[in-house]
Design a protein that fits this description.
203 residues, alpha/beta, Rossmann fold, 9 helices, 5 strands, globular, disordered N terminus
Length: 203
Amino acid sequence: MNVESSAVIVEVLVEKPIHHYAHLLPPIFLVGPMGAGKTTIGKLLAKHLKRPFLDVDCYISKKAGADIPWIFAKEGELGFRERESRAMNELSALSDIVLATGGGVVERECNREYLKRGLVIFLDASVDTQIHRTKKDKNRPLLQNDNPRAVLENLYQRRAPLYQKVADITVTTGHVYPKQMMNEILDLLTAYAKNLENQSNAT
């Protein structure tokens, strides 16, 4: 991590104290398209909430002993999706975590059910933002073709309604710096936690 990134994390941690409410929050699951920033924001959020950060794709790779492109090449997308659903079942059962999911996780009904075990934040990114952030990434098998924009547009059209369906909170990415995004997310989480606290006090 470079000095600039470290400074961003420190500033975010100092500016938005949510620690009083963190214990009220369920597991937090980040969903959204490729390039939305789920890993970057997830790591920042986990540091702020003092929770472990987990990534579904990294978990799959570690268990398989191979990277995602290799799994796609040997087992096809169906094989990868089977692994992804098993990983979602295992990881979504954990408490007090921040979990970044893959872009296609919402397409399976069982995964959408697993997401109900926690609080879902949908990081919404335009296709232009996705193109900018993924154009040099060789670890995205679905984009290894002559027209990645067409693929991303098709995926977004198909998946956006599902992201919206599972989301408790929606945040648009790509238009502000990570620090500003974190401030927005932490404000929303604080309001969510306060509401939970009020509901608990009322019963």
